[in-house]
Amino acid sequence: MQLPTLSRTDSADTARLELAGIGVRFGGIVALDDVSLQVPAGSVVGIMGPNGAGKTTLFNVICGFIRPGDGTMSLDGKPFTPVPHRLSARGVSRTLQSLGLFAGLTAVENVAAGASGRHRSPFVAGMLGLPPAAHRNRQALADASNLLDDLGIGSYAHTLPPALPYPVAKKVAMARALISDPTLLLLDEPAGGLDQTDIDDLRELIRALPQRADSVVSVMLVEHNVDLIMSVCDHIAVLDFGRVISQGAPHEIKADPVVAQAYLGDREAS
Ligand SMILES: Nc1ncnc2c1ncn2[C@@H]1O[C@H](COP(=O)(O)OP(=O)(O)O)[C@@H](O)[C@H]1O
Ligand SMILES: [Mg+2]
Fold it and tell me: How confident is the model over 139-175, as pLDDT tens digits?
């Protein structure tokens, strides 16, 4: 795979991503309230919280789908105002809970499509007959094919998404996020719908991410599977009603009575 060419600062004292005082309101609903957290370079940071706590809103803010009413963000120490279609050029990519694969493209084409942003060689543009990019499309397809092999699903390269078993489709979505060589990867419920064997696979994959190739990859993970989040994260933030009610290492979160209380309310724990 092609390595990232962007210059980055990976010094230990500069967080890859820093959120300070983020606030989001939807009409009268406070979805996020004074949320501050850091994602150090090379770390895996988990976001937990009951339904409606603000987890998805937080990811949407980081991806630029929602502009916060309050607060600031920085990426590698520089002010960060995310714009969705420019995210991969900033080294940020995301998997969607709903996968979002193109039904009319094969698995390998779906993954190659994810290379567009970083390489500025729109594979999709090539597919639409826009000039010229043929060489880069071939490169993107070769990279995509290698990535599917790495993830152990190379035999599905030419299968269309509707025919993919769900765990394979999830890996294709992960490969599409990885092909742009992100240095910050946002995973939205990656374990959802997977059985224990697939979750164990995913655990190994997430653990290996920070040392991927020559990049220092940071990961943010929204996940309901408590075992998974506790076993892969260096740091966890717990949201409730839009506020960070607890932050710390997994063992600290496990022992925090405030966290247990948040999951014991009249809302269903999730
Ligand atoms: N687009 C929206 N319009 C209005 N309210 C929203 C919107 N998105 C989220 N909310 C509300 O904001 C709160 C946080 O939602 P969300 O971030 O989806 O929570 P979570 O992902 O933790 O379940 C909830 O009360 C939800 O109903
Ligand atoms: Mg959500």
Answer: 889 999 999 999 999 999 999 999 999 999 999 999 9
Integer Cα distance of 269 and 248 in angstroms: 20
Q: What's the CA-to-centroid distance between 67 and ligand 2, angstroms?
A: 17
Which residue's alpha carbon is nearest to atom 18 within ligand 1?
56
Phi, psi of 2 (to 5 degrees): -70, 140
Ligand 1 pocket, residues with Cβ under 6 angstroms: 26, 29, 31, 49, 51-57
Query: Helix, strand or coil for residue 146?
Result: helix
Q: Is the dihedral of CA 196, 193, 115, 73 positive or negative?
A: negative
Mean of pLDDT over the chain: 86
What letter represents residue 115's amino acid?
A
Which atom of ligand 1 lies nearest, measured to the CA of 51? 23
User: Token digits for 31?
Assistant: 């979805």
12-84+224-270, CATH topology level: Rossmann fold (3.40.50)
Residue 224 Cα to ligand 2 midpoint, Å, equals 10
116-147 confidence digits (pLDDT tens): 655 444 566 566 665 556 667 888 899 999 99
State the distance from the centre of ligand 1 to the C-alpha of 91, rounded, in angstroms. 26
